[in-house]
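Hi P.,

Sorry for the delay on this. The queue was packed all week, but I finally got your sequence through. Input first:
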Amino acid sequence: MHQRPRGAVTATNEPSELGGAGAASLATGVTRSPEATRAVGRALAVLSQPGDVVVLAGDLGAGKTTLAQGFATGLGVTDPVTSPTFALMRQYRCALAPVQALLHLDLYRLDRLAEVADLGVAQLVEEDAVALVEWGDVATSVLGDDLLTVWLRPGAEPGERIVELWTRGERWDGRAGELRAALRAGASRP
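Then the structure:
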């Protein structure tokens, strides 16, 4: 198991801690390949709305960036999507309305919660954008009241990933059934 660098904000190791106070488990699925993990990302992206914040959690190599690539494709992003670990944030133009921009953040290298708060993620997504935050489980308290957390971890077989969806806040309540269906549809791909 890979850990975050010494001194970094501590990541959540258990899904029961995801999303902070008020978080609720929504669904669990298993993907059997990187393409199936991308398919889950595409299916979730179709359900996203401007102002959404989606947290991607899991250890190094768990599939966060793979899911982010599918999510970006689902929003009509045509640029290559890589983890913004050193850039901290990348912005992509989306071709599919109503979301006009995808803000892809990676909090892996941040040492203090105050650094995350200074980014003002909740304010960045107010107008026609969705934020996808890798390692966002370290900062749920400053990412806003409404979150979808996607927790990924390796499964028993090579290429297999266990994907858990957690929600916090009312924003996602009306999409719960669709989120479950999106996870099932993506996870059913080979």
